[in-house]
């Protein structure tokens, strides 16, 4: 990773531009080496070309290859393709798997997940894009916002409204496989983030986009169920890669602290620097253990919904860990830390990005609180049963005191 993959961050642009001659020259040999070692696409089972290592081992792997922008794609575990491949693996027909999943797993193509819309943001119930049945086809109209890797994707997994009158609002949506070259798809504008080499998220307009009925994943109204197949794992994978990034910032911070001197002593001897290092180490360990526990739980039942509290806790913790550690590393590096020679400012900005992607931090904190409170019974009387005088009375009765 350090010697052969991390250098790619300084030589190549977007890691999703897989047809760039330099990508082919530099990345393809590394991918083949990973495949030869049996480490390719480890998030999937052997029947799909992976190793079936499960979430725990995948977390430990991401801790290493997440230190580079190109690490995930070298190992066949890059977003959004990992989540999209899981959807296709679970809900795709044999024909869909042959046509879309196999080339995606081989990294012969990249994909896009198009769910968010301009008016809805993090609320999927506000999706207004529609698909109307017309003979053997569905015709899609609407707009999509921040569609990831839309410009380079061979196909989109697109959530749209198929039954606006369904009594259960979570049965109104369906997901379709939409080839990127389908007539009627227009990229209005590409958006990027500070520190990214290229703009990778699109504002799409969909005008009479016609797709065959067999391109639906699952049954009509299954959109939310299908989407959860990718969102739980996707949030965990983001966290694993964020842990790697925060760890790298911590390592750089520590090296700077023992390398730089001021007023006759190392920065490492300054108590306020020591505080930053101690706080960062504690945050890293807490976050790492939270990820590993959640990954282990996922492996026990393979049911993301059953551990949604844990997944949301990971997602809500993630932005703050990266923000705090990258900010401290920047501060300890002084003027050099804020310069283009260092990645810290990009990582601070990225902490806000990951606090919004796959659901904002506020939403996930609400999920955690709701799940915790589901198991709590209210007090039977006006005053709680744990008042000290009540507990004392019960203790005396128990022991005859």
Automatic annotation (TrEMBL):
Domain Acyl-CoA dehydrogenase/oxidase N-terminal: 28-106
Keyword annotations from UniProtKB, A to Z: FAD, Flavoprotein, Oxidoreductase
Domain Acyl-CoA dehydrogenase/oxidase C-terminal: 221-372
GO molecular function: acyl-CoA dehydrogenase activity; flavin adenine dinucleotide binding
Cofactor: FAD
One GO term describing the cellular component: cytoplasm
Record-annotated Acyl-CoA oxidase/dehydrogenase middle domain positions: 112-209
Listed GO biological process terms: fatty acid beta-oxidation using acyl-CoA dehydrogenase
Key word Flavoprotein present: yes
One family name in Pfam for this protein: Acyl-CoA_dh_N
Keyword Zinc applies: no
Oligomeric and partner information: Homodimer.
Assigned protein family: Belongs to the acyl-CoA dehydrogenase family.
UniProt-recorded name of the protein: Acyl-CoA dehydrogenase FadE
Organism, scientific name: Pseudonocardia halophobica
């Amino acid at each position: 990773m350090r010697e052969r993959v991390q250098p790619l961050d300084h030589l190549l642009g977007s890691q999703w531009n897989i047809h760039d001659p330099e990508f082919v020259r530099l990345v393809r040999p590394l991918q083949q080496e990973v495949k030869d070692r049996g480490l390719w696409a480890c998030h999937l089972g052997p029947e799909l070309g992976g190793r079936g290592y499960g979430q725990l081992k995948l977390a430990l792997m991401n801790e290493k290859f997440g230190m580079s922008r190109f690490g995930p794609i070298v190992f066949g575990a890059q977003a959004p393709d990992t989540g999209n491949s899981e959807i296709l693996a679970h809900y795709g027909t044999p024909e869909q798997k042959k046509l879309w999943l196999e080339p995606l797993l081989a990294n012969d193509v990249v994909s896009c997940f198009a769910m968010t819309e301009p008016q809805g943001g993090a609320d999927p119930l506000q999706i207004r894009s529609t698909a109307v049945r017309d003979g053997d086809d569905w015709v899609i109209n609407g707009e999509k916002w921040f569609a990831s890797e839309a410009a380079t994707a061979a196909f989109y997994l697109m959530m749209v409204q198929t039954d606006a009158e369904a009594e259960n609002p979570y049965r109104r949506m369906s997901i379709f496989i939409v080839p990127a070259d389908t007539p009627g798809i227009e990229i209005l504008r590409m958006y990027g983030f500070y520190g990214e080499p290229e703009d990778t998220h699109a504002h799409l307009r969909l005008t009479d986009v016609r797709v065959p009925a067999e391109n639906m994943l699952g049954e009509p109204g299954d959109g939310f169920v299908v989407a959860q197949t990718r969102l739980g794992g996707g949030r965990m994978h983001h966290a694993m890669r964020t842990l790697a990034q925060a760890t790298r910032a911590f390592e750089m911070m520590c090296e700077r602290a023992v390398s730089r001197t001021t007023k006759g002593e190392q920065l490492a001897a300054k108590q306020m620097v020591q505080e930053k290092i101690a706080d960062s180490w504690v945050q890293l360990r807490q976050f790492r253990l939270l990820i590993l526990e959640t990954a282990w739980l996922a492996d026990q039942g393979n049911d993301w919904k059953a551990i949604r509290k844990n997944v949301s806790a990971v997602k809500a913790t993630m932005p703050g860990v990266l923000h705090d550690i990258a900010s401290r590393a920047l501060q300890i590096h002084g003027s050099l830390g804020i310069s283009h020679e260092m990645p810290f400012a990009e990582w601070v900005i990225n902490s806000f990005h990951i606090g919004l992607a796959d659901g904002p931090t506020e939403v996930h904190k609400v999920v955690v609180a709701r799940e915790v409170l589901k198991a709590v019974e209210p007090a039977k009387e006006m005053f709680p049963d744990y008042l000290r005088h009540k507990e004392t009375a019960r203790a005396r009765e128990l022991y005859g005191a």
